[in-house]
Design brief:
The structure is a homodimer of 247-residue chains. The first copy, chain A, is α/β, with parallel strands linked by helices and 247 residues long. The first copy, chain A, is built from 9 helices and 11 strands. In chain A, strands 2-1-3-8-7-6 form a 6-stranded mixed β-sheet, sandwiched between helices. A 3-stranded antiparallel β-sheet of chain A has the order 9-11-10. Chains A and B meet through helix 1, helix 2, strand 2, helix 6 and helix 8 of A and helix 1, helix 2, strand 2, helix 6 and helix 8 of B.
Chain lengths: 247, 247
């Protein structure tokens, strides 16, 4: 039996992404990381720091995918509302997690700052912790929803700690072939090639580079031998048109 | 009467974004550009190149916002299905647009390539065109859904042509103040400050830079005088804590 298809959704929480102030890089990082574990990002949403948006999005996506990963909104300021939204989404209380609280109480900071920082110890009741390899407060998960930091380095430090803890399925591999040809010139043979290779998905990505047009063809699939076969067919097609494909 | 609030959703179409192969930059570009026109990106979705996902997403978002902007999937290959999905979303036929077809028939290319390229002339019946300042085939719009290319430079060339054609509302402006303080140290005074400035939204974005922790506080709002007032209060708060804020 082939390994199962395991899917995920990614929820990027933060007004700063929607305002255009900050370029999100977490989606790409998460997609690449979980992809290597056999978990496919099937959709992503960017939502503002508002409770209705976060609660509705998480509840819609968590029933549709094996995993949901959120980033952002777990700091200590008034605009960090992810933990309470996740609690609301699951209909559970927000509680102070003793492990996180103990960690924060050890910070070298004045008592009034510790009191405020303890906001980061609030998690939905029943949540498990996601170790933060960067050393700060951990993330948490409830059910299949994994709540990560928004700062990219901290997000990666949390996600990395999940490497051996999530259950992936078939891993999608990819092979890329690039040539300086126009998309319309290859569209028809490529369509026939795709029709003959139903178990490999071929994407076509045109580009402009140093004044020349070109296209990168990306074959994606779970079976290495089929990928190799398809990649060779793509190269033959391009060579047959007088192009010089590079992989 | 204050100017109205005009909102938008952004739909990024493309497996290459969800696979982690390609870093999307279109969301940020669109958000910044339309933001300056008084149109606020309120949510964004990244969806795969599949008809059910694109149709459902567009139909959900177009009734919720003044504008929807999509990027990607309007080339000439088999994985470019945006035009037919938009037609399906609106329940109209896909037709060859005479203006685009005439443009493509003028390409210096063999007849069989022209035939394939004419796929890019297919638009939903009743669609208007979005001029492509980069010189290639135009984008199109149906109702309040604006369909742009995925290649960032082409997307910008299309979006730019809309500058005088869309109707914006109140423009959100922002002021940023940065200081090397920890978020928990400012969280409580910042919460009070936010409570006293209901018409300005204050976001708090911690960062690590050259081994130091800091935070950027971003005040956003539509009234310049309130923004200035709030920014001054933020600076005073930080100075009062012994920090040296920079704007």
């Amino acid at each position: 039996m082939p390994p199962p298809i395991v899917t995920a959704a990614v929820v990027i929480i933060g007004n700063e992404i929607l305002s255009g102030r900050t370029q999100d890089t977490n989606l790409r990082d998460i997609a690449n990381t979980i992809g290597a574990w056999g978990i496919r990002a099937m959709e992503a949403r960017v939502v503002p720091d508002t409770e209705p948006a976060i609660v509705a999005t998480v509840n819609e996506l968590r029933v549709r995918h094996n995993y949901v990963f959120t980033t952002g909104g777990i700091g200590s300021t008034h605009d960090d509302i992810t933990a309470e939204c996740i609690a609301k989404a699951f209909g559970v209380n927000l509680i102070e997690h003793p492990t996180i609280a103990a960690l924060i109480r050890n910070y070298p900071a004045p008592p009034e700052v510790i009191t405020v920082a303890l906001r980061m110890a609030l998690v939905p009741e029943g949540a498990g912790l996601i170790e933060n390899l960067a050393g700060g407060p951990p993330g948490f998960y409830v059910g299949n929803v994994y709540v990560l930091a928004g700062i990219p380095s901290v997000m990666r430090a949390m996600l990395g700690s999940l490497a051996t803890k999530l259950t992936g399925g078939a891993v999608v591999q990819s092979r890329s072939v690039t040539a300086y040809v126009s998309e319309p010139a290859i569209a028809e043979p490529l369509r026939r090639l795709q029709a003959n290779c139903p178990n490999v998905e071929i994407g076509s990505y045109p580009f402009f580079k140093e004044g020349r047009i070109g296209v990168t063809l990306v074959a994606r699939g779970t079976e290495a031998n089929l990928l190799t076969e398809t990649t060779e067919k793509i190269k033959s097609m391009l060579v047959g048109m007088g192009a010089m494909p590079t992989e």
